[in-house]
Predict the structure.
Amino acid sequence: MLYYPGKKKLFFFLLILLLNQISFTQPQHEAETFNPENQFFTLDFTSPSVDLNLLRQHFFTTFPHDDPTQGNVVYDQTLWKNKDIIQIKPADGLYLYLRARNDDKGFDSFRLTSKSFFNLSDSTPRLLFVFKGELPSARGIWPAWWLNGSREAHWLYEEMDGFPAEETLHQFSGKGSVYPTSSPVNNTDWPAAGEIDIIELINGENVIHNTLHTCPQMCDAIWNENTSPINCANARNGDPNAGCSGTPYSVKAPKGTFALIWEKRHMRFYYWPPKAEVRKNGGPLSAHPDPQTWSDKFLKNEVTLLETDVPCDENIHYDWQCRNCKDHTTCNFVNMKMIFNATICGLWAGNKFDQSKNALKNCQKYVLGEGKKQIDGNFLKIEYVSVKPL
């Protein structure tokens, strides 16, 4: 004999069945697709709440390759003899140290590479990069804050569903001198995606250089309204890609606030001394930076980029450069990662160590000998670093 509940009970019974059915048949939300491009960030290391975990959310803190500039440093954390290279001092800043190794490799050093890469687009036509802090400065030291691009699969995390854990970079440990091994922090197609050097200085001179590197066929540049364009590969004797540069400028000490405004055909490089007010009234560290309010006295270099018809000549630029540059004939900087590093001697600081023909060897002898104590313990301090659209 069938049992029929009352009408109200039957109604609620059928409603519950219907809701259960809906909950089972509703489509599940798809997981968000991993997008490593243009993940903007602001890190204020003067805040007591910032720690190394936050740093590692945005930067790889190891470089498991030889120094591409052939400096007397070890960037690979698995090979460090000193384990105190990276430190945060609460409410003060992030410190990145040079430490003597007491062997022929010279010094343990640091190289931070942003996990995200950055591109301009119609929706993001202008990006602002800001750094406030202090750089190491002594004979033999070559520190830099710069952007480097690549189109390679490792660099772009192709077929990955998230940033690789830093430990996975150890598979590249000891591989790659002068760019032969691609990884998420190293590329073999330089300079086909371009390079922007926001800060470089050498040998304690406290002179800041702004330089661009591209393929010969990519860009010419006019710096500071100079009427003579210069190619942004600009091969010279002994250097297949010296790049194109603005006017070097001197500072009392390499500390303060530095900024780059990057647009497709225009870049501006800024510097404020340490005591300048940069956190208020539209300043570079304010919540809403407004370059229109920045005094021209803080503008150090500006460059306009042009297309070029300069060919790649293997007799001047070297065959590897022409291979990398074969298909890159438009003035376009792409997939730029932010990098902080310091090397010792190397191809630039070493060759400019003195005026002799043996400058590089003299630099290496100095840093491994009498200069070791002057270099050991030098540091790059980051108080603030950010990248954001304008």
